[in-house]
Predict the 3D structure of the following.
Amino acid sequence: MTDNEPPAPAASPALVLDGVRKRYGDKQAVDGISLTVERGEFFGVLGPNGAGKTTLVEIMEGLRRADAGSVSVLGSSPWPRNLALLPRMGVQTQTSAFFTRLTAREHLATVAALYGSDPAGVARTLALVGLSEQRNVRVDVLSGGQRQRLAIASALVHGPELIFLDEPTAALDPQARRALWQVLRALKSEGRTIVYTTHHLDEAEALCDRVAIIVAGRVVALDSPDRLVGAAQAPTRLLVPAGRLTVERARAFAGADRVTAEGGSVVIETRSAGPLLAALGADVGLDGIRTRTATLEDVYLELTGELAGTEQHA
Amino acid sequence: MSAYTALTRASYRASVRDRTTVFFTFAFPLIFLVVFGLIFRGKTVEQSGRGYIDYIAPGVLSWGVGNAAVFGVAFTLMQWRRDDLLRLIRLTPAPLGSVLASRYVIALAIGAVQAVLFIGVALLPLFGLHVDATWPWALPVLVSGITAFLAIGMVIGSRADTPEAVAAVANCVMVPMAFLSGAFYPLDAMPSWLRTASKVLPLHYLNDGISRAVSGRADLASTAVACGGLALFALVFGAIAVKTFRWSNAS
C-alpha cells in the first residue's frame, strides 16, 4: 500500500452482500445470501463441495456477476471489472496459474508488475511464505506444497487490504500449515481483512473471527466459532480408561446420557460435564480421564448432514 | 516494470526456454526451404522464366511467419486460459491491451528473426536466391501479415480448449493454405481458377507482397494491395477474436 492512499472510511465494511443469487441452468448455486464482513475481520466460508462457496467467493472477487442482489467490496461494486478496486484485493490463484517456464521469483515479479506494485514486495513475500530457497526453481518443478505457497504469495505480493484464500492449507504438511497460520494471523494483526474457504474445521475454529456455513446456496449458520459451538449444545464426551469403570456402572451416574465402549475407553456423553466429572472424581478418581468438548466440526456435521441429507458423500 | 513489459518478458522467457517451440518456430520451416530448394535447384518456372527459389524462399518465409504467429498466440491463449493464468490477469488491474500488445511484440520479433534467418539461408550459393534492392517493401507486408495471422491465432486460441484442438484447427487452416496460396508451389504454375481462388486466402497477400519485394517487382501500389488485403483479414478476425475471447473455460 502506498502512503498517499486516502484513509479508508472506518465505517464502511470490507464486504456487504445483500440478497445475492446466482443460477446455472436449473441449479440455484447461490440462493439469496446476505452477509457483511467488517474490516480487519478473519471470515471463514465453510460448506460441503457443491454448496456454492466457490461461486459466492467468485462473485465477491468480481469474477462473476450476481443474477440478483447487491455486492459491495471495500465500498464499491466489483462488477464489471473494477480497475480501481482490483489492486486493493488479493486472490490466491489456482496452483496451475503460473507463468510457463518461469522461476518462482520471476513468476511473482510478473504478478507484482501486473498489479503495478513495488518490486521489493517479491523477495519479502517469498520469505513470508517460506519459498526464499526455491526462488530460482522453475514453477513446473515445485512440489505440491511449494506451488500452493506460491499461489498464496500471488495474493499477498502487492499488500492488499482484502485477501481471498481458497483452501490455502490443503496441500501443506502440518509444519507448513502451522507456519501459514502464523502468516495469516500476522496479516490480520496488520488490519487486513481475510475471507477464506476451507474444509479444515479445526483451522477455521482456530483462525476465524466468524464463519458462514453454506449449504445448498444458503447461509445456514453465521457467527463466531465459539458461539456456534455453544449454541449447538452438543454433548461433551468424557473418556474414562476402561479398567476403571464398566459401561454398566457408568450408566448409573446422573447426567450420563449415553455410554459406549470405544478403543480402550468408556465414553460417556453428557450435557452436564461439571457435576458428572465431580461425581466421577469422587468415585474412580480424575486421573486419566479425558474430556472432549464439542467442536466446530460437530456443529458443521450436524448442520450440513441435516440439510444436505443423503446427498452427503465421503 | 509495467504490466506490458512484465508480460513481454514472461512470454520471451517461456519461448526461449522451450526447445521444441524454438525448433518448430525456426528450424521446421527452414527444413521446407532446404528440401524444396534442393529439389528445384537451378530450375525455373516455365510460365515466368524465374527461378523456383525466387518463389519458394518468400513462400516458405511467409508460411513460416504466418504459422508461428497463429500457433504462438493460439497455444498461449489456450494454455493461459486452461491454467487459469487469464483469471489471474483478470484479477489484476492490467489492461487487456497490454496483454495483447505483449503478444504482438513477441510475434513481430519472432517474425523478424525468421525473416533474417530464412533469407540468409536462401542467399547461400547452394540455393542461389537473389534479393533485389526493393526488399524494404517486404517490411510493411511482414508487419501486416503477422497482424492478420495473430488475429486468426487469437480466434483459434479463444475457441480451442486443448493443445490437440489448437494443433488440429491451426494445421487445418495453415497446411492447405500453404499449397493453395502459392507459398509451397508457384501460383504461376497453377491453373488460372486456382490463382483467382487463392485471393481469398491471407497467405496469398503475404506471399505475394514479400515475393514482389525480394524479386524487384514491388512498388507502392502492389505493396498497398498486399497490406490492404492483410489488414482486412486482420480486422475481420480481430473483430471475431474480440467476440469470442473468454477469460476462463468455465462460462
Q: What stands out?
A: Residues 3-244 of chain B form one domain. The CA atoms of residues 145 and 206 of chain B lie 6 Å apart. The interface with chain A takes residues 1-3, 5-7, 9-10, 13-14, 17-18, 79, 82-85, 87-95, 247-248 of chain B (CB under 8 Å).
